[in-house]
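Dear support,

I submitted the protein below through the web form. The confirmation email said the job was done, but the results page showed an empty box. After a refresh the structure appeared. I'm attaching both so you can tell me whether what I see now is the final result or a partial one.
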Amino acid sequence: MAHQSVDANEADPLLHLNESHASSSFPDAIRASTTAITEYRHSATTDNADKESSKSLAEQLEGLSLYEKKCILIDREIDLMGMGRYQWSIWTLCGLGYLIDLMWAQAFGLVLSPMQQELGFGPNQTGKLSTAFSVGLTAGAFAWGILIDVFGRRWAFNLTVLVACVFGTSIAIPSTYNSILVLTALTGFGVGGNIPVDTTITLEATPRDKRYLLPLLSIFQPIGVVICSVLAYGFVPNYSCSPNFSEKNPLPSCSAVPSGDACCIKENNMGWRYLLFTLGIVTLIVFFLRTVVFRLQESPNFLLCRGHDVKALEVLHAIAQYNQRHCTLTLEDLESLESDFESTRNNEPTNGSDKQQLEATWSEKLITACDRFKILFSSYAMTRLTLLVWLTYICDYWGFTVAGIYSRCILTMLCKC
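What the results page shows now:
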């Protein structure tokens, strides 16, 4: 039976072989018949693949919310586009955000000693600088992580770098410790948003088979540490009060000696300020690259969550055009999911529902947005995963803090022992 089925399927190509043999040479007829058979089998294989793909998509959409279904269509479209120029640009620029993060964190450990020599605060106050920065980081990570879900990714992508640039550079201006602590906390607030914002943007723009590139963003962090350390090596030792903090009998602070005595004044201690000015320029360059050189499109996932299906499709087409690819997803594909949902809709606003989100009040949108956080603790596995991720980032920052700020003190104590 199987043999008869194959003969029947290949009947048309064989007839074509006989016709070709009557009107052309035998080799040409063989090539024609071979081409016909290949095309026929390829067509059959393609049809079967399409059926399997449709079946797979239906299985993926089963049991999901409207927003999750639309996100799967968006992800499939990004997968079809592949890792193009747009995705590589985002990966690089978000990596520079990671670089800025550790660059500024390292800076506060390197400027602490010359700053202490000039301003004259005691050893019991040195921890305030790292505390102020840590408070800013904590507030920034929490605030920016929520704000990008409320107002979008695009503006936060640029604003976090701008805040870090403005306040980080301003630290070099005042001559009072309390003012420096306030500016340090504000710098931490901007820097603290880089990792959650950049991670989210990279994750949503990268094809699923290339998401191993997400943890590779961390390679930019040690680069930031090296850049900051090299700049500090050039500025701090050469433009500090002499004798400086690392030499015997360092010059005291002017606040600790009578007027007229030799002391460490601002004009002779500009090294740590030059370092912060230079880091501010590096951050400004990153801000320029993010805002002028490259134009970030708003996340399609965010637009879907807010009910802007048309804008989400416009973004996909803009990304495809930037990558010189073709976008196959249409508004009808999203509307078909919407119509299925409308048949069973209730009166409560739902993520991903075009009409419901646009008609909802701000209080209803806020409640809907807060519902997404319940996913983090929706099950034992998710709760454990969430807590482990938090613990990993906590330990990660502890390690960088000890290495960047307190390593000098630890090594000094060990040498004295």
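Response: this is the final, complete result; the empty box was a page-load delay. The two ends are 90 Å apart (CA to CA).
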